[in-house]
Design goal:
There is one protein chain. The protein is mostly helical. The chain has one domain: Tetracycline Repressor, domain 2. The chain contains 9 helices and no strands. The protein starts with a helix and ends with a helix. Residues 32-51 bind DNA.
């Protein structure tokens, strides 16, 4: 039997995970407290037992989205490396995969939220920056030794921008071309 504190922790996690999915799909403005609580199977009135404000929820949701998306990418990489790919190529292939483009709710929040980040409350902006730093760290760890350290930010920008453009085009020749050409360019430049 779960303790009340254990139930509260589970409810809290359900709220954060629900908000994380909505955040990646609909952006900051799409996260409504009532809808998130309903999606988590809880009443709207229980929100303030878990969070001081909507911004506190957004900060936790973006943190959860960031950790989840990095974990998904890192989980996909060993399978690709087992096929003979370098760590960098595995990262590029995993990030620019059609599955990542199609599944906004589970994907990296960076492409969905970057344009909105500067307009958020300070605590949300601070949490948002963790996405950028985590992705930068992942790219930095996978870049080949000969790549200049400053290349990591360029790669992060190219990956995020390619996802934004591919999602904007949808499942079209143009959308697929954005992914293919970005992969080709990044691999030609850094995976030699």
């Amino acid at each position: 039997m779960k303790t009340p504190a254990g139930r509260k922790a589970l409810s809290h996690e359900r709220i954060v995970q629900s908000a994380s999915r909505v955040l990646r799909r609909d952006g900051f403005t799409g996260v409504g407290v009532a809808d998130v609580m309903k999606s988590a199977g809880l009443t709207h009135g229980g929100f303030y037992a878990h969070f001081d404000s909507r911004d506190a929820l957004l900060a936790e949701a973006i943190e959860a989205a960031s950790l989840d998306s990095i974990a998904r990418i890192e989980a996909a990489m060993p399978q690709l490396q087992a096929q003979g790919m370098s760590a960098f190529r595995a990262l590029v292939e995993a990030y620019l995969s059609p599955q990542h483009i199609d599944d906004c709710e589970q994907g990296c929040p960076m492409p969905a939220l970057c344009a909105e980040m500067p307009r958020q409350a300070p605590e949300v902006r601070g949490a948002s920056r963790h996405i950028l730093k985590r992705m930068h760290g992942l790219v930095e760890r996978t870049l080949p030794a000969h790549a200049p350290p400053a290349a990591a930010w360029a790669v992060v920008g190219a990956l995020s921008g390619a996802v934004q453009l591919a999602r904007a085009f949808g499942d079209t020749d143009e959308g697929r071309a954005v992914l293919a050409q970005t992969k080709d360019e990044l691999l030609a430049r850094y995976d030699t």
